[in-house]
Every structure is written in structure tokens, then in C-alpha cells.
Amino acid sequence: MLSSDALSSIAYGTEQIVLVLMTLGSAAIWYSLPIALVVLVLLASLTLSYRQIIHAYPQGGGAYVVSTENIGNMAGLVAGGSLLIDYMLTVGVSVAAGADAITSALPVLHDYNLLISIILILVLMLMNLRGLHESAGFLLVPVYTFVVMTVVLILVGGMRILTGDMPYHATNSLGTTVSGMSLILLLKAFSSGSASLTGVEAISNAVPFFKKPKAKNAAATLGIMALILGIFFSGITFLNYWTGVVPTAHVTVLSQVASQVFNFSGIGKTFYYIFQFATAMILAVAANTGFSAFPMLSYNLAKNKYMPHMYMEKGARLGYSNGIISLAVGAIILLVIFNGSTERLIPLYSIGVFVPFALSQTGMVIKWRREIGKKFWHKALSNLIGAGISYAIVLILLIFRLPDIWPFFLIMPVILFLFYSIKHHYTNVANQLRLQNGEVVARTYTGNTVIVLIGNVTNVSIGAINYARSIGDEVIAMHVSTQETLDKDKEVETEFHTYFPDVTFSMIESSYRDIVRPVIRYVDLVAKASDKNDHTLTVLVPQFVPKHPWQNVLHNQMSIRMRYYLSWRDNIIVSSYSYHLKK
Amino acid sequence: MLSSDALSSIAYGTEQIVLVLMTLGSAAIWYSLPIALVVLVLLASLTLSYRQIIHAYPQGGGAYVVSTENIGNMAGLVAGGSLLIDYMLTVGVSVAAGADAITSALPVLHDYNLLISIILILVLMLMNLRGLHESAGFLLVPVYTFVVMTVVLILVGGMRILTGDMPYHATNSLGTTVSGMSLILLLKAFSSGSASLTGVEAISNAVPFFKKPKAKNAAATLGIMALILGIFFSGITFLNYWTGVVPTAHVTVLSQVASQVFNFSGIGKTFYYIFQFATAMILAVAANTGFSAFPMLSYNLAKNKYMPHMYMEKGARLGYSNGIISLAVGAIILLVIFNGSTERLIPLYSIGVFVPFALSQTGMVIKWRREIGKKFWHKALSNLIGAGISYAIVLILLIFRLPDIWPFFLIMPVILFLFYSIKHHYTNVANQLRLQNGEVVARTYTGNTVIVLIGNVTNVSIGAINYARSIGDEVIAMHVSTQETLDKDKEVETEFHTYFPDVTFSMIESSYRDIVRPVIRYVDLVAKASDKNDHTLTVLVPQFVPKHPWQNVLHNQMSIRMRYYLSWRDNIIVSSYSYHLKK
């Protein structure tokens, strides 16, 4: 299932290559074939080098861990930061491509492309919040359907070409020189196509999910996946070349190829729709890999105090839930910024993947050298090649695609700064909380003063005063009065005294409609007096709890605000008295 | 400034008419001239009838108040609900048209249309949260610039036509019969153009903002505005007809007309860019009217308990802030759903305006009849005409634009249901809070038990125990232990007892990583025991308050959760002990 990320990339891989070549006109499309071949060679070597990582880190490596352990903190954080963004891009690119697959088949929906993408993300988010990974079996269905359908597509296409049923429509025959073709353009096209290689990372991150022997199974999966991907990628690129399909704004290349191969009539039409649907589904499953990888990575970063603790909260999968929600929000923001365009997201996606690729492969080389010594070449060779390829692709992207990838270099320093600020803050707080040797702040108090906020005399306020009397040695009822409501305020005071004749009732006057400031001013005064008497001071905010949690949105805004503002004052404990409604 | 809403509608009014006519081909464009005339006649009569409302409700009427008072609750809520949605659409349509104006002038930004719209909304939101209305003088600049620039546009266009400098390029001469032209299509085009009438409502809502004599000034403003709008609308429609401009996907009709009239070279180019910028700015100001109207309407609805209290919170403009944020979020959601397309938002916008128009005019007729009796015709005539026009437009929309406006009929019942549910809930709660005659729950307690949650022994936990001893007769320190951390937990217990040898230390064991459930189970047990002893029970959650509010996001997730879950238990008061960090 983890292969979905890599396999699904064929839905946009060929198209991305062809799109770049199209700048020279459709005659240049045949170049996609040699480019696809180079991509496949790279895939093979990256696969070999990632098998090394899987064997070395059977507990689940990932670029963050490998880079941190072998190169250093900074390298690890760069890898981790890139991957955080990259998982958002994985989700964004996959759902955007999924929406493209859907709207290619159903053009009437084309205007709603972005909306479809966002809905897909929200559905995936909810499924993951509900604990998708535990019942993930059904996710295999779209993966297998897609694999079967792609095999059928390639077989039908091959048969029809061999039997001469599908005429040769290539825009230009193989090997024709196209004027204006340059190495730069080829490298650009290649860098776009290399986005198809990005799925290799997902498997090495997820080794712990495999059956035992984990590392062996994961490595085998990687091999099989690379083989399938190779066949699919070259098959589709060839079919695209043969049919002479040219990218258009509203229909994906893959959809055009499929509709040509399946002839789009009779039973072929059905096949075409199943194929498009399977494409959309595998892309959704691919987006889902981001939803398992992101929370795990943010958990690891939070454990090392580079990300907020909320990503590693104990119990009830809460930390993971925070990761899942952050990922979904991030992906939606990226989609809105880039208007749901796969074409513009993919260069960023590539740089975000190949930087950690390069770092983790470098880390592996360093590891072998340290562990094995002089003879490390034997083990490190494939990692060296992997690192070389990754650096080369990063370099190509840097030189030829800078107009597309500059946001990466804007975001990364910000992320690194955040990582270090968070780390600094946590260290700082830990120092302040630690008990200093010999210093024990064991002040003893002689009692407690309680201020109860009273609006009207209701069941809530009566309960609150009763509670206040149980904890306090001195109880003060406080009521805020404005000029306009003076008569009503006097009534409240009279009614209050019929129930509690012995409790002090303080009327705080406020000339404007701001009730927070006068309350704080009064509370501060009482706090000073209590401190002198060695009393603690409790401010009790009565509130009621509605029967259903969602009803909270209708109530208690004022007590939330009051608690918030009072929580910043020293020497004051803010407490809520909750009255539970039964209906 | 309030006129901006109406005046800005010329940025899309002509275009909407032409777009519908284009379904018959560009030859049909000349029909936009008679349609524009009809729209102007309607504008005149709507203006007259709205002047009546202004005179009758000098304290600021608006469809909600007028309909509720004169027809009934239900009619008022339909008008109010429509307007709530409609203000979101005002914001959405205006910023989308503003983004169109910008990207028409700067085509390189075209792909970022939606993003530009969203950024505009967020900027308006922040400006309004900061209290824009108090320094609103500078908003007049774009309005005047736009008025001046449009006058220049019409004058230059007129001059060039009269001097023969701008050749006659109309796609078809006036009066030519176009095959396929039907009354249905004309009515459709007319209903699209009538979106330009929607600004009339904004002024009648905002009478309180005018200088005294308010009603007279407001009525005068309405008259002047209608005159300017009439000149602008017919001028631009005529220029569009003369130049034969046809709608295209990426450039607005108004932008094409302006670039033709200003000849787009030399000084004309500068004029063109100023004009486009002024258009975008007046549209932003128009969106801003939504930001003053929405919070006021939601305040009125909240006062009558049909909307959550949070829209009428006292003090610090908080209620208005909630309204402003809700409006911005709603507008952004609408934009994303409709992909930032003015063309698809406008039919909804029209139905959402003309339903409350019709209701408030009906309300006025009823009011005159009740107040004046038999001779009410004299006063009610203009309102009767206004109501008639509004019903007619609603009917046209209903019959010919149903495929575009059906969401309105889906959303309105939901909104009405929510209004009534909220009202029902508030009434229900008020009944439960009211003290029943003779029933006084004045239970007296003999003391208080305090449970303090202790993780580690830090400055925070020591302070918390000190406080707990000041309020409690019995203090229990509670620590949750998991299998994995058993050794560390024993250490915590030992360390705790060196500081507080006399405080009970309860170790709660939990076999899994969920610490909420065991805590609740234990607390429930203690609660039962305390209740028997006539003790209240306080659960004290220690937490620390970082120096800067934003740092809260890095901390205390666990104590927030704990408080949340405990807040649902009866007979337990949850309190936080806050330790303030100094650094």
C-alpha cells in the first residue's frame, strides 16, 4: 500500500516531462522516452541505496533520524523541516492530481477542481482522525484496482499497436532533431519527471509496519515496487508518444492516453471510467501516506523538543491527531496559494524530497565509514551513487528551476528558526521549573479569600456561593454595574441579601461597557490585602455547563474572557464553579 | 462612502448582462442598452421607496427590523437570514471582482486570482478588527478617485466618439433582430444586471452614521448616488456597445473598455492603470460595507436570542469582532466553493438581496395601512411599486435562474432552523437557571477536599500544594504512573515526601498511555466520599503561565484536556493553579 505514493506518481510523471518539452512545441515530445529511461535508471540506483538504509535502520529510519545521527543536528533539522513541508505537498499534489483525474473524466466538474481537492483532504483527515490505519485493509482495493487497470491499459495498448489497430500518431518520430532543443531544457524536463522518484522515501520511513522479518520484507517490497513503477512509467510514456497526445488545460495526459487506448466507445468507455476512478483513488491513497508519515515525523521532532509538545501528547492518539490536523490545514493552504495546480506544486515537491534524500544518503556514507573504516567502499558505494544523484538533481533544480522553487529557500530558514526557538524556550522553562538546591518555597497561609463574580441571582450563583464558603475564610460577592443598569443592579443586591445576609456584596461601578478592566482593578486591590494577611486569593467564576458540548458555543464567552485576563495576574487563583444543566 | 457598494457594481454590472446575451453570440450585445435602461428605471423607483424607509426608521431600519415589526417574526428572520448570507456574498463578489480588476491589468497574476481575493478579505478583516470605522476618512480617497476616473473615462470616450477619433465597432447595430432572442433570455440578462441595484439597501441600514438631520441627509445621499450610478451604468454600457467589446475569460469587460477608450499608449496607459487600480480599491471599499453591516445585523439577531450571545458580548467591541471574523470566514468559504467566480456568485447575491427587499417594502405597505388607514395609498404607493419590482425580480430569478440559485433554498431552511433552535435553547436555559419560588439550595458544607495533580516535583507543584492547603481541609497529591515509568514514579514520591511528609500521595496506576480515564475514575471515587462527609471536592490542576501569551501553544495541553474532561463531572470543581514564569 505504501507503494501507492510512488505508483500514483505515474498519473502526473509523464505529463510533467511532456509539459516542459512542449515549450518547444509538440515535435519535442519524443524526448520524453529517453528522459523516462534516465529516470528509471535513477530509480533503480535510489532503490538500491534505500535498501541499505532499510537494512541499517530496521526500526524505521527516515531522513531526519539518519541525518541527525550521522551528520549532525542541523542536517537532521534541514531534512526534517523539508520533509514536513514535503508531506504537505505530497497531500496537496496527490489530491490535486486526483481531482484532475476526476474532472478529466467528468468535465462538468472542472470548475470545482479546487473544491474537490479540499473535500478530499478533509475526508482523508477525518478518516485518519478516526484511526484509519487500524482498518487499512480496504485501502488495498484501489491500489490493486489501479495496478490491474494499468496493466490492462498497457496490454491493450501494446496489442492494438502490434495488430495495427491503433495508428501511429506520434507528433514526430524518434531521433528527429528539434531545433532549439538544449541540454538545459532536457535537464528541466528530467527534473520534472524525477518527481516520480519521490515515493521511495515513504517505504524506508515505514519499516516498522512491515511483517517480520521487517527489513527483508521492506527491502523486497521496494524492489518489486521499483520494477512495477518502471514498467508502468515507460509503458505510459511510450503510449503517450505513440498516440501523440498533447497536454491540454482541462484533461490530463494520462486520461487522454486512456481514452485513446480504450477507444472510448462501448466496453472501452467503461474501462476508461474505471481507470480514471482507480487513478483518483490511488492518488487519494498516496495522499494518505502523508497522513501516516507527518504525525510520526512531528512526534520525533517534538520528542527532541524542536516542535510543540502537542505533537507528542500522551494517550488517546492526541499527539497524532494534532499532526493530522496540522497536515490537512497546511495542505489546504498550499492548494489555495497555488490554486490547486499540480504543475506549480511539483518543482517544490521535488526540491523538498531530494534535499533530505541527499542528506540521508550522505549520512549513510558517513555511517559506513565510521563503522567499517577503510573498507567502507563496499557498503557505501550504492549510497554514494544515491547521494550523487540526489545532489545532482538538487543542483539541476537550483540552477534551472529557481523561479519555481524559491519559496523553499524562504520557508526553510523560517522553519529552522522556529525549531531552534522552540528548543530554546523548552530548555529555558525547564530551568525555571527545576527546584534550586536548598530553596524551598514552602510559604504557609493562614486562610483563603474568595471573590465570586455574581451577575444575577440564579441557581448557578447560589451554588457558587455555597462552594465558596466551603473553601474560603472570607467570601466576597462581586457585581459589575453600569450607569444604564443601576436600578436593576440594586434589585440584584437586595435579592442576594435575602439569601446570603452575611456575605459582603461589592458593587463595582463601570462607566463604559467594559467589564473586564474594573474587575481586574478591584481584584488586584483585594489581592494585595490578602497577601498582607497571609491569605491566598481565589476568584470564582460561576458558569453553567450545558447538556451537550456543542451548546457551549452559545454560552460562557464572558467567563472564558474573564478567566483569560485574570490568569495573567500573579498571586490570584482563578477557579470555575460549574453548574450542570439537566435539560 | 456607503455609495461604494452601489457604485462599484458597475465594475461587473454591464459584464453580467453581456455575458448572458453572449449565449446568442456577440451580435446580441446591443440589447444590453435597453436592458440597462430598464435597470435604471427600477433603480429610480427602488430609490424612492427606500427613501420612505429611511424617513420612517431614522434610527436605522434594515430589512430585518422593518419586516419583523410590520409582518412578523418569520418574515423578519427570512429577511435577516438572507442578509447574513448576502453580506458574505457582498464581500465575496466585491473582492473577487476586485481581484479580476487587478489581474486584468496585470495578467501575470491571473493564476493567483483566488489567493488575491482571500488576501483582500483577510486585510479587510484585520483593518475592521482594529476598528477601521473610527478612521474611515481615508476610505473616501478610493471612492472619489473612482468617481473622478469614471467621469474621465466617460468624457474621454464621449469626446473621442464625437470627434470620430474612436471608430464605431459595435458588433451589431441597435435594433437589429437577432435570431433566437427571446423574452426569457432578456429577463435572464436583466436579472443579472439587477445585481447593480443591491447597493440601495446598505444606505438605509446605515442611517445612524449620517450627520443630522440624519434621515434627510441619508435620503439626499441616496438620490445623488442613484443619479451618479445611472450616468455611470448607462455610460459604460454604451461605451461597451460602441467599442464592441466581448467578454473574455481573463480580462473584464470594464478593463477592455477602459483600455480601448484610453487608447493604451503614452499617457492613456497611465490613465488605464489608475482606472483599474481605482476600480479594485472601490470594490474593496464596497466589500467593507459588508464588514459594518454584518456585525450590526448579527448583534440585532443575537439581542433577540436568534444568534449566539457571542455576537453581542459587552465591552471591547468583542461582539463586533466575532461578527467580523464570522463574515470573513464565511466569505472565504463561499469564494473557495465558487472558485472565486463573480459570474456564479452574482445570481445568489441577487436572490439574497431581493427577498429582503421585497419583504421590507411589503412591511412598509402594511405599516402605512395600519398607521394611516384608508388613505394609506398616498404614502404607500412608492413602496408598493418597490415591492412589486422586487417580487417580480425574485420571480424571474426563481423561474429562469433556478440552476444558479438553488443553494439559496437549501441554506435558508437550515438558517431558519438554527435561529429557532438557538432561541429555544436560550429560553430553556433561562428557565433552568431561574430560582423556583421557595426553593433555595442553600446546602452548607463542613469543609473541602483538594486533589492536586502532581507530575514532577517542581516549583509549580510546590506552589500548588501550598495553595491547596490554604483552601482545603484535606489535601491529596495524585500522581499517574505507567508500567514503563514505575522507577521514576517511586523517585517522585520520595522527593515529594521530603517536602510534604504530611500530605497523602496517591499513585494511580495506568497500564496504557491514557492518563485521563484513570484520573477520572479516582476523582469520582473521592467525590463520593467527600459528598458523604459534607465536603466539597476541588481538583487543582497546576500549570505554568509563560511570559508571552503565544508561548501557551507550546504548553499545558494536558491540563487543558484534564480540565475539559473533569468539567463534565457533577460535584467537582476544577481549578487551575498558575505559576508565572518570569523569563
UniProtKB/TrEMBL annotation, chains A, B:
Subcellular location: Membrane
Keywords linked to the UniProt accession: Membrane, Transmembrane, Transmembrane helix
Any one GO cellular component localisation term in the record: membrane
Membrane topology: Multi-pass membrane protein
Membrane spanning residue stretches: 28-48, 112-129, 136-162, 168-187, 219-242, 271-297, 318-340, 346-368, 380-399, 405-422
Domain of life from the UniProt record: Bacteria
One GO MF term: transmembrane transporter activity
Name this protein carries in UniProt: Amino acid permease
Organism: Pseudolactococcus hodotermopsidis
